[in-house]
Amino acid sequence: MSVSESWRALAETAAKRGLPLEEVLGPGVSTVKLDKAERKLGITFHPDLRELYEQADGLRRISGHENEPCLPGFGFQSLKKSIDRTQDLRDVANDVDSIELWRQQWVQVFDHFYVEVFAVDCTNGTVWYAWWEAGEIHQVAPDLATFFRMAAEAADRDNVHYQLDGDYFETPDGEVWRAPIKRPWSPT
């Protein structure tokens, strides 16, 4: 399944589960903006990452809401925020002189309340999860298509619904839903 196909499947799942995509989804960005972002970071984006941002430019806050909306399991940053956040994370890693904290070829695209982050490794397209406070850094998917598929399948399996007043997904019993997409990747 391509990134475009899996992205559409995830977006359809989110919409079916109550996320007002027409209000929150930013339109895709141009090749010119993608090229400019690459130059700013000094790397070449993986083709899957370029394809994603050509489809959509993150989620934006709904008028009158304090929180940014999220997809099932993670927030999706605009290209501009993603580049700014990636640069910030690089700076932190450089300050403590640790390649283990942040790799130069990573681009932070998704997050969970800015604390837990998901990054795309532009050398090979793998998706990584990092939560430094808990000492967790590991690969969660071999590519974006698999990452999106896992999130959509988990949302359907757990029958979650979007709570617009809180900008999150919850389970049928009213608990805030934690998507099972943060575990280390292992092929089946």
Would you summarize the structure shown here?
This protein is 37% helix and 21% strand. It has six helices and nine strands; from the N terminus they run H-H-E-H-H-E-E-H-E-E-E-E-H-E-E.
Question: What does this protein look like?
Answer:
It is a single chain. With 188 residues, the chain is α+β, with helices and mostly antiparallel strands. It has one domain: SMI1/KNR4-like (3-Layer(aba) Sandwich), CATH 3.40.1580. It has six helices and nine strands, in the order ααβααββαββββαββ. The strands form three sheets. The protein has a five-stranded antiparallel β-sheet with strand order 3-4-5-6-7. A two-stranded antiparallel sheet has the order 1-2. The protein has a two-stranded antiparallel sheet with strand order 8-9. Helix 1 packs parallel to helix 6 and helix 3 packs parallel to helix 5 (79-95). It is globular, with a radius of gyration of 16 Å.
Query: Any idea how many domains?
Result: 1
Strand content: 15-25%
Radius of gyration: 16 Å
Helix content: 25-40%
Oligomerization: single chain
Number of DSSP helical runs: 6
Overall pLDDT level: 84
Number of strands: 9
Query: Order of strands across the biggest sheet?
Result: 3-4-5-6-7
Q: Tell me the series of helices and strands, N- to C-terminal.
A: HHEHHEEHEEEEHEE
> What fold name stands as the CATH topology?
SMI1/KNR4-like
**Coarse structural class:** alpha+beta
What is the CATH homology-level superfamily? SMI1/KNR4-like
Termini separation: 17 Å
Low-confidence segments, given as residue ranges, are: none
The geometry reads as: globular
Gross CATH architecture? 3-Layer(aba) Sandwich
Biggest β-sheet description: 5 strands, antiparallel
CATH top level label: Alpha Beta
